[in-house]
Write a structure and sequence with these properties.
Distance between the termini: 37 Å
CATH topology: Endonuclease, Chain A
Helix content: 25-40%
Strand content: 5-15%
Number of helices: 4
Largest sheet: 5 strands, mixed
CATH superfamily: VSR Endonuclease
CATH architecture: 3-Layer(aba) Sandwich
Number of domains: 1
Amino acid sequence: MVDVVSPAVRSRMMAGIRGSNTKPELVVRKGLHARGFRFRLHADDVPGKPDLILPRFRAAIFVHGCFWHGHHCHLFKLPSTRREFWSDKIGRNRIRDNTVRGQLDETGWRRLVIWECALKGRTRLGVDDVLDRTEAWLRGSATNGEIEGRT
């Protein structure tokens, strides 16, 4: 099958997809700020440029889109067109996520991943529940955490 979308058009289409300041990320930021937490955004000096870093807690928080990071939930479905392209792309994202996890461990940062399905879709938990879990993780001693939708 011939791909009918030119590279220039595909590039413009992909440019409209946000990598930061996504709706789920903004919900988490607003909620944590309202609870008194102060943080930096997308810090270049921390491996993986986490969505939020809280230096006081030595914590990095990532708000991951389920599609882009290949999460095992109802929000992820490999597209039926250009399957090889999407499989490779998502596979590279997963490899990068694993690399970043190792770098954060090596440099002493705690890490929390909040999955998009925790905040939207049929398995969502609710904003207050996600924020309660995030706050508990920040104030606790666990080095790694993950918040995802109900299974």
